[in-house]
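does this look right to u?? coproporphyrinogen III version
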Amino acid sequence: MQKKETKDLLANLTGTKTEQIPIWFLRQAGRYLPEYQEIRKKNSFLNICQSPKLACEITLQPLRRYDLDAAIIFSDILFPLTAVGQKLTFTKGEGPQLTPPIRTKTDLKKLNFDLFEEKVSAIGEALSLVKSQLDDKKTLIGFAGAPFTVASYMIEGAPTKNFAHLKRLLFSDQETYSEIMTFLVEMTRRYLKIQIDAGADTLMLFDTWAGQMSPLDFQEYSKKYLTPIFNYIHQEGTPLIYYPGANVESFLKLDTSKLSCLAVDWRISFRQALECIEKKYVNKYELCLQGNLDPQCLLGSESFVRSRTQQIINEIQKLGINHYIFNVGHGLLPTTPLESLNWVIDEVKKFKL
Ligand code: CP3
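got this back:
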């Protein structure tokens, strides 16, 4: 007989319906928490990513404050780039800067995987530390960025609105684009493998900028670099959650048989998302959905926050979605009021399926 899963969140990912809807928040370990700000005053962001003790502490901070079902390891989708040879800096108000930007074959040759596992070992050590302290009802989540989203920072060298360098490369020199993306597939696989080995219960792949591709380009130039990652993680037997940002089209023709869960952005409806996923995947494979609450709702009044939370649960029920993880549809804002998370959690926990 199959062992009953004690973790509600993992149960939903692996096809078991639970009485309670599990809940966690994207970017739950971060700047809206005063206890995070305290540590950040004395340590740079990268130092925290490189310190298993500090990363573990910050990962656990939201769970001390809130009744959450999961801990997401504290790191960043750009952290592994520092181990292949790009320099990452955060300039106040300007976001992450990566130098040198990688735009040619010669640029790419400057990067390599020498001692990669050692250079990012902090994430594995942080995961092991968290695992040893985490209640066994809670799920431990590891993560990475999807190749296209990481490529956008790697190629542009800084946050961008129009992705001009990336698009120029893609539309004028597909061979170099393909080499960069293939390099990122390898980097992502290795970064995720370290996390599997260190005890991550599940993994999330963030593809925040997937919607910057036209539907046609997504099919041709992004999906083929996702597929080997989906296949690899599936082979490893670890459930995978994929977040394609606000891009409905990226759900289209996506072979979700290798995925456990699709994270639904707040800018699309569950109905739209389901229309794009082939029926056989939702029913046959019991695909789990996650998310959809607009993170900006949390700036609202208590009655508003509670009613939006209920609306999402009602919609899930109406659509007959069996497996669902409550979450926001993109990361919490640094201005999120601390109390508002309790209102959401309280509404979700009141509810019994
Ligand atoms: O609770 C958690 O989710 C913590 C772990 C985490 C961080 N970044 C920590 C972080 C995760 C899962 C991420 C993912 C991430 N990082 C994404 C994908 C998800 C999304 O939000 O779209 C992206 C695109 C990045 C890249 C990145 N990292 C940016 C653009 C920035 C600067 C602006 C911002 O959004 O904060 C970061 C820095 C960063 N990563 C911070 C944190 C807590 C802020 C660091 C600080 O100033 O203290």
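Residues 193 and 293 are 30 Å apart (CA to CA). idk if thats expected tbh
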